[in-house]
Write a structure and sequence with these properties.
The complex is a heterodimer of chains A (about 110) and B (about 110). By secondary structure, chain A is mostly beta strands. Chain A is built from no helices and eleven strands. Chain A has strands at about 5, 10-15, 20-25, 30-40, 45-50, 55-60, 65-70, 75-80, 85-95, 100, 105-110. The relative contact order of chain A is 0.34. The mean pLDDT of chain B is about 95. The chains are: A mainly beta (about 110), B mainly beta (about 110).
Chain lengths: ~110, ~110
């Protein structure tokens, strides 16, 4: 069965600093991978998705993620955090017909 | 742009009540899903449907049922609400089956059972 581990339930960065949110998955086959963002009192929105076309995936709002098969990781990064990036972020993995979500990482951005 | 609308943002119900959570999507998606979201647990799949009149159990179906009479509408039913069903409920739809295309989520219904 698939599983997704997000390291760190809370991450705090200063405005302008690098954002790094970690995601590791277990999968016996190459999966589809997603990052979603949830702003307060809203549902989840797709940030980006990996579907094997390229290992470095660019998403919305300046975020990107790199698929590393050898490390079974799909970490999310943004070079410079903005106050509006404060939200909860979810990594999700799916080989087929079964999407598994991580527990989420809450990102706080300090002025 | 896909819109998934959940009829209630907040609901407060009493233990033992029958509760209906409604979800409508406007993009003619075949696939619809109900998740519950709890702190530290992420999203857990309750039920999903790949077609009208069709339903499949997810990971945590106990205490829930669903109805899909029309393609655009997917309802979650709590037959007899209990306090451990206090949670955020998220409806989603997708163009293709789970994993092949992203999920489009509604804004959620925060249900409190007292």
């Amino acid at each position: 069965a698939q599983s997704v581990t997000q390291l760190g339930s809370h991450v705090s960065v200063s405005e302008g600093a690098l954002v790094l949110l970690r995601c590791n998955y277990s999968s016996s086959v190459p999966p589809y991978l997603f990052w979603y963002v949830q702003y307060p009192n809203q549902g989840l929105q797709l940030l980006l998705k990996y579907t094997s076309a390229a290992t470095l995936v660019k998403g919305i709002n300046g975020f990107e993620a790199e698929f590393k098969k050898s490390e079974t990781s799909f970490h999310l990064t943004k070079p410079s955090a903005h106050m509006s990036d404060a939200a909860e972020y979810f990594c999700a993995v799916s080989p087929d017909n079964d999407m598994r979500f991580g527990a989420g990482t809450r990102l706080t951005v300090k002025p | 742009d896909v819109k998934v609308t959940q009829s209630s943002r907040y609901l407060v119900k009493r233990t033992g009540e029958k509760v209906f959570l409604e979800c409508v999507q406007d993009m003619d998606h075949e696939n619809m899903f109900w998740y519950r979201q709890d702190p530290g647990l992420g999203l857990r799949l309750i039920y999903f449907s790949y077609d009208v009149k069709m339903k499949e159990k997810g990971d945590i179906p106990e205490g829930y049922s669903v109805s899909r009479e029309k393609k655009e509408r997917f309802s979650l039913i709590l037959e007899s609400a209990s306090t451990n069903q206090t949670s955020m409920y998220l409806c989603a739809s997708s163009l293709e089956r789970v994993g092949r295309s992203p999920l489009h989520f509604g804004n959620g219904t925060r249900l409190t059972v007292t």
